[in-house]
Amino acid sequence: IRQALSTFSESAQTNECQFAVENILVESGSVVDTIIDTSVKESCDLIIIGSATRAFRPSPATQALLRKLNSGSLSGKAVAGFDTRINPEDIKQKFVKFMSGKLGYAAEPILKVLVNKGGKAAAPPAGFAVLDSEGPLKEGELKRAAEWASVIRSD
């Protein structure tokens, strides 16, 4: 996984968007425990969770991660949530387009859970458009993501 992240960061890195691969944690075991334990150990003041949108919600794995967070476990932490999504104008089926307008995407529920677990919203939830359900990002979305990340505040 670290190699894949390293390859991604090399290909995606721009002056506007820098990645520190050495600071990316890839662990086995409970992801929730790793996130919380590391945030305490490293005195992290910001936690960002992202997910692909699946059936108008975070992915099942992200939902499971969010359910495992204990009440108050994010107290004192700034939090932000984002998702990847198909843009409504790119959706061909009228019913799916209608439902996406009614039910939304993953970023909002992610941020809601993070705040309910004690975090303080550091940025509005954000969505980034992909070309297909497995990506890649549409042209210009990496720049939008970097712009969104630049407004995240952890104070």
* Derived structural class: alpha/beta
| Sheet with the most strands, sense and barrel status | 5 strands, mixed
Tally of helical runs:
6
Mean pLDDT: 79
Q: How are helices and strands ordered from N to C? A: HHEEHEHHEEH
What gyration radius follows from the Cα positions, in whole Å? 16 Å
Shape: globular
Query: What is the number of E strands?
Result: 5
Q: How far is it from the N-terminal to the C-terminal residue, by CA?
A: 31 Å
Fraction of helical residues? 25-40%
Report on the structure:
The protein is an alpha/beta fold and 155 residues long. The protein is 39% helix and 16% strand. It is built from six helices and five strands. The protein has helices spanning 2-12, 31-41, 60-68, 94-103, 107-116, 141-150; strands spanning 46-54, 57-58, 78-85, 120-121, 126-129. Strands 1, 2, 3, 4 and 5 form a five-stranded mixed sheet that branches. A hairpin with a 2-residue loop joins strand 1 and strand 2 (57-58). It is globular, with a radius of gyration of 16 Å.
Write the layout of secondary structure elements.
Layout: H1 2-12, H2 31-41, E1 46-54, E2 57-58, H3 60-68, E3 78-85, H4 94-103, H5 107-116, E4 120-121, E5 126-129, H6 141-150
Parallel strand pairs: 1-3, 3-4, 3-5
Antiparallel strand pairs: 1-2
Give a short summary of the structure.
The chain has 6 helices and 5 strands.
